[in-house]
Amino acid sequence: MNRSALCIKMLQILNAHDFVTKKELAERLETNPRNIAEFKKELEIAGYMIETTKGRYGGYRLLDKASLPMIQLSEEEKQAMNDAYSFLKNHHDFLSMEMYRQSFEKIQSSLVFNHHQSDVVYRGRNHFLDKEIQKMIQLCEQAKKDSCAISFEYRSLRARSYQKVEICPYEVLNIQGAYYCLGYCPQKHDFRTYKFSKVRMQNMKILKKHFTRDLDFNVNAYLGKSGLMKDEPIEAEFLIYGENAVLYAEAEMGVNPTMKFDSDRVLHVKTLFEGKMKAMQFLCSLGSSCVILSPLGLKEEMKEEIRKMAQNYL
After folding, report:
1. For residue 243, what are the contacts with CB-CB under 8 A and spacing of at least 6?
2. CA–CA dist 160, 171 (Å, integer)
3. Could you tell me if 249 and 259 are in contact, meaning their C-beta atoms sit under 8 angstroms apart?
């Protein structure tokens, strides 16, 4: 792709998003990050106003959204749109499905775009989002849009009663099918995550308190690589036997796992878990087909957990 085409593509990306980091632009354009600043200069010479944010998560924001000509989609891009529509239609916990459908139909009507069923068969989770949870998520989204604080009563996993919480909502997250609110808690002077749940959360209200969003905020600084939790990492080594060895050789276990077969039905795994709880939950799920090799502390904790489990059935 030549320099002019890269500049136009960069403009399209900036026009489609509120803010894009330099790293993401370089990856999307498949070019050296040093070239991004040069492309920015050329776009500014052409009359586009681009705001720069410096720092570790620095990037660009197009100040005045441009009216660009509709670019024809390739056959592969059309197929990807069809696949996405079919995938989301079968995942009932996608909160914005109706709005996505309307947007998809508008794209269809403005392009030569014949929608057909995806060649891939998708089967999503069967349960639907509860109406009360949907209402709480929508309240949180509205507060985020208006830069207003919210309050609600919340009961954490270890708490026996509800506590009143007041936060500035920054992001609504969907992690492995569950919805969470990531917000700044003035009382704790830190960002906290709260799960949208009928059991844990109740009486949500939008307050008449406005907040100013931190421009340096980056959601990835508060998330783990494999899920919601960002905890003390544990490097674990273990063996998986039998049918599970074949099954889990096809799966992602932890972060950056390395796997090899010691024999036909013995899988040797080394991986990084983001927190002890996540490690214990996964290793317990393997039952008797797993043996922990290291660390010894995790192995001893697993023995104690197995002893407690056995007592429940005696």
Report:
1. 265, 289
2. 27
3. yes
From CA 31, how far away is CA 78, in angstroms rounded? Answer: 25
Percentage above 70 pLDDT, the chain: 89
CB 152 within 8 A of CB 205: yes
pLDDT class of 150 with cuts at 50, 70, 90: very high
Q: What is the pLDDT of residues 209-260, one digit of tens each?
A: 999 998 888 888 877 665 665 567 889 999 999 999 999 998 888 888 999 9
Please tell me which residue, 43 or 225, carries the higher pLDDT value. 43
Residue 268 φ then ψ, to 5°: -100, 120
Beta partners for residue 241, in sequence order: 266
Amino acid 225: pLDDT: 61
132/156 Cα distance (integer angstroms)? 19
Buried b (16+ CB within 10 A) or exposed e, 124-161: eeeeeeeeebeebbebbeebbeeebbbbbebeeeeeee
SS3 63: coil
Which carries the bigger pLDDT value, residue 75 or residue 69? 75
Strands (E), the chain: 20-21, 50-53, 59-62, 148-154, 163-175, 178-185, 190-195, 201-210, 233-241, 255-263, 266-274, 290-294
In angstroms, the CA 122 to CA 114 distance is: 20
Cβ distance 194 to 165 under 8 Å?
Answer: yes
The whole-model pTM stands at: 0.58
- Pure H helices in 17-74: 22-29, 33-45
Burial of 308 (0-12, 13-18, 19+ CB in 10 A): exposed
Buried b (16+ CB within 10 A) or exposed e, 172-208: bbeeeeebbbbbbeeeeeebbbbbbbeebbeebeeee
Residue 175 pairs in a beta bridge with: 178
The tens digit of pLDDT for each residue in 75-133 reads 788 888 888 888 888 777 788 888 888 888 777 766 665 555 666 776 666 566 788 99
Tell me the backbone φ, ψ of residue 63, rounded to 5 degrees: -70, -45
